[in-house]
């Protein structure tokens, strides 16, 4: 069944015209993880074609979190910082939106959209502008010149991979980061209401963030279906992520009296209760501001598979 037609976001309509008819590609794939090797112009991209489905504004929660949390690192960069939208899909609007949101944090930011399907790269080129470009590539993240990105965003890329491939992909992508860089890898629903992502640095995974439009939430464990590949099969008794979501649901139930003040106040109260037993990374910083956005971030070490 065909999806209903969607309006193109204003950022893409202003001064830009899509070339050719819009098309949807539904191709199943298997990613092949290969040992790291030097990136050269003749290197074959690592991986195979994804389904490429996407929607305008789908990654807004992840983008805003990156801008808020990693904005200081972008501003400290002595050169124009580079961010990569890895696997942007059949339409380029997530890369356009990433540029817009990161430039609000650091106007010098440049974004490179990387796609493994050559036809998608060619279709995206008319949308290139100052600070935004598109290249053909995969997990090797081929950037022109000796450039290492300060941000790599890989959203909805690893969900269809085998769990045992994730660590190798993470390692490959983290090796491409500039010092102090950030890899954000996760999964969201089709319109970006519910999203869970892992933040990683060159040293490895740091944290897991749960983000949602609070009006769509019955209970926090509804986010389980959007866990990234490293965790989604671990949501079973005896695993840390299962215990975390169980405790979050209990805190949500205990915070029910706050529902009369709105879902946001109930969420904030539930997160405060959760912080008594779980190492939330934003408790001692400006956590309340992120909590008000329907977010909570917990240390990766607390949710890592088998860490109980």
UniProtKB/TrEMBL annotation:
<dbReference type="InterPro" id="IPR029063">
    <property type="entry name" value="SAM-dependent_MTases_sf"/>
</dbReference>
<protein>
    <recommendedName>
        <fullName>Class I SAM-dependent methyltransferase</fullName>
    </recommendedName>
</protein>
